[in-house]
Amino acid sequence: xxxxxxxxxxxKLKSLQGKAIFKLTRTDSFNNGEFIKVLHKVTLxxxxxxxxxxxxxxxxxPKANEIEYIExxxxxxxxxxxxxxxx
Length: 87
Hints:
The protein is mostly beta strands. The protein has one helix at 6-15; strands spanning 20-26, 33-42, 46-50, 56-60, 67-70, 73-76, 79-86.
C-alpha cells in the first residue's frame, strides 16, 4: 500500500516533490480520462500537479476518511493517482 493514513500520504508525497510521475484517472466529470502528471508541490491541503504543457492543476485533500489507499497510489473522490515512476 502506498500510504497508511493522510499524514503518511502527505509525508511520502512531500519527499517525491518534483521527482514523481503519476497517472491521474478522472471519472464522472467534464474532463474524464487518463493524464500523466508530475508531482510539483504538496501542502497540507492540496497537491499541485503539472502536465507536459506546464499547466498546473490542484487536487485538494478531503477529510482523512475520504481518501482510499491503493497498491501504488490513492483515490480522492473521482480521481485516482497511481505512481508510475520516480526520478
